[in-house]
Amino acid sequence: MLNIAKAFCLSCCFILCASASVMAETLPRIGIIGAGSMGGTLGRLWVKAGYPVFFSSRHPQELQPLIASLGPLAKAGTPQQAAEFGEVVVMAVPYGALPALGKNLAESLKDKVVLDVANPYPQRDGDVATQALQVGSGVYSARLFPQARVVRGFNSIAASSLASNAHRTGDALAVPLAGDDRKALDTVIQLTKAAGFAPVVVGDLSKATLFQPGSDLFLQTMTADELKQAISR
């Protein structure tokens, strides 16, 4: 009986591992550029949801403890490698770094979904942030990645709030999104749900001003209904 039970357990483990492997192959690969509090938090949530995630930073060797804790779906390397790996590439860096990344990674990001979670702060990021806030962060980010399909999202909620509210009991925490490309938005909507949140599309990239720094929705934690009501006022 013990041998039968052991064989059954091994068989179940094999089936579960195989299922997880098949699921990971069908889900879009995610490259994250910047593995700080925001990039690290989102990456962890997506790995737990079964997505293959490539974390990157200027010092990828420092990411090994994170990768070891997350298992085989997580990898680490350079920003260039993350951009090449991801079907969806997340920009989780200071906003002032985006112009250089837009130039250096242009070929690797061509036609890909770029999820921009960076926030422009003039005191930290200089003129590029000032221009982004004046033009609108969504529209300006799209100019920096002209061949990619840019979506703005997750930038209006602190990483600590995302970590503590993912998959919470009751109404999910809402995440406002803005984008011009419907298919890109659909992809990010699915990623938002997989991470444990309620996606709310507020409009095209010009509407990203509604939840950029200085707006009424910035750093607010709301349910989807509360967010929709706030937008409609």
Question: Would you give an account of this structure?
Answer:
With 233 residues, the chain is of the alpha/beta class. It has one domain (28-232): NAD(P)-binding Rossmann-like Domain (Rossmann fold), CATH 3.40.50.720. It has twelve helices and eight strands. The chain has helices at 2-26, 37-48, 64-70, 79-85, 98-104, 106-109, 122-125, 127-135, 137-144, 159-165, 182-194, 224-232; strands at residues 30-33, 53-56, 74-77, 88-91, 113-116, 149-153, 174-179, 198-203. Strands 3-2-1-4-5-6-7-8 form an eight-stranded mixed sheet, sandwiched between helices. Helix 11 (182-194) links the parallel strand 7 (174-179) and strand 8. Helix 2 (37-48) runs parallel beside helix 10 (159-165) and helix 8 packs across helix 9. The relative contact order is 0.12. This is NADPH-dependent F420 reductase. It comes from Pantoea phytobeneficialis. Keywords: Oxidoreductase, Plasmid, Signal. Residues 29-120 form the Pyrroline-5-carboxylate reductase catalytic N-terminal domain. InterPro entries: NAD(P)-bd_dom_sf (IPR036291), P5C_Rdtase_cat_N (IPR028939), STEAP_metalloreductase (IPR051267).
